[in-house]
Amino acid sequence: MSGDDNIFARLSPRTRTLAGMVLALSNLMVVLDLTIANVSVPHIAGNLGISADQGTWIITSYAVSEAICVPLTGWLAMRFGAVRMFTLSMIGFGLFSLLCGLSMTLGMLVVCRIGQGLCGGPIMPMSQTLLLRIFPPEARGRAMGLWAMTTLVGPALGPIVGGYISDNWSWHWIFFINLPIAALCIFAALALLRPVETHMVRVPIDKVGLFLLIFWIGCLQIMLDIGRDHDWFADPLIVTLGLLAIIGFVAFVIWELTEEHPVVDLRVFRHIGFSSGLFTMSLCYGAYFASIVVIPQWLQTSMGYTASWSGIVTAQTAMAALFTAPIAGFLLSRVDVRLMISGAVAWVGIMSLVRAHWTSDIDFGTMLIPQFLQGFALPFFFIPLTTLTLGSVLPRETASAAGLQNFVRTMAIAIATSLVLTEWGDSQRVARNAMANVLQPDQTQSVLSGVGLSSEQARQMISNLVEQEAIVIAVDHVFFLSAIILFVAALAVWIAPKPRASVDTSAAH
């Protein structure tokens, strides 16, 4: 941000309002794209002739590439200018959205999703930076409130919009709908934001650190994504990828701690409040996102739900969060944030335990209740955690800590997606084998044969019932593990000391 005193005078109130709405819209689009594909995975998998497990690469590839690009945002903004970088990112995001929609193979779709993530990564922090730049201090609260609402609304709209489009049009349109929004944001940025462009500064880039970051994350994510299909560490390829990820990570840590201009400033981990807060965040985001991934796939592949209805179930959590977000913001300076975070995370854990008792004959309304109730706690976790982590570092480290926080959050989502699908698949096999060992189908076959089914039809019906029950048992197992992780996170947050009273969260994104 430049030091020009008259920067706010360059834009009229009307221009500022329009620009603020455009920046909030751009943030909504990027957040929406993280969840819009979740409920569409079964449609995409069926259309491309791939398994549902392979279909989840569409989610993880976007999240990983976005996480890699986030640490570069500050350097890119200084090197090319904040407005110019925002505009270029929007152009790239729109282009890769078009290519995603035109994809006819999994390989092309994953590559284009990577491009989408690389271009989308800077949009979130850039939109926030520009909002702070165009509004004077006394108006920033309302502007950031609008921005924060899009961060909450995005995950709610994503499953609903994705489900409706997949059921009524085609999955290709979940990407095509980005095009008019991207075009509007590009032209609006060119027309409204040029007066607040930042100065370009030639700053060094940590090329070695960036290479090592991409290398170890790439090896880790590929290992997690293909491990299920390669019998994990029984396959030399998975072992090799695991070793390369470990070596790359160790080399990355050593290099970043000794580099003068690191791409990721790992030195902030010396603050126990930041470290424990980030540990809590990674556990919570991973456990929370597990349900966002598993529920739509279970409802569509086993329970006969359409993508639209599974999206409505998934979106209830974010819907409820909209009601309590203002309350969480009000209590932020009045209550110990550790108490807010711990209580909220424990509440989400209790709702996970409730969902761990779902059965194959559960009705729509029964599913909605814990989903909706869980959402009331989310703002009491998301909002105070930023205060806890950024309040634990030195003021000059706030920007680095905020970037690292966003990086870890996005990586937690990508890694959790891979791990939870692996655990879900393994639990299905265990449950199926356990039921097969104790099943006595002869009497059931006789009854089914008596109502006119052939022996083959009777066996197939019994097999389908076993499969359906094995899947729901595996879903319950995932929720039970999520609850344990959340309870651990609720305790871990108390490792952090109480943050200082005044915290600048403007660098958070």
From TrEMBL:
It comes from the Bacteria. Its main location: membrane. The chain crosses the membrane at residues 18-37, 57-78, 85-108, 114-132, 144-165, 171-193, 205-224, 236-257, 278-299, 311-332, 339-356, 376-394, 470-496. PROSITE patterns: MFS. It is a multi-pass membrane protein. It holds the Pfam family MFS_1. InterPro entries: EmrB-like, MFS, MFS_dom, MFS_trans_sf. Residues 19-501 form the Major facilitator superfamily (MFS) profile domain. This is DHA2 family efflux MFS transporter permease subunit. It comes from Sphingobium cyanobacteriorum. The lineage of its organism: Bacteria, Pseudomonadati, Pseudomonadota, Alphaproteobacteria, Sphingomonadales.
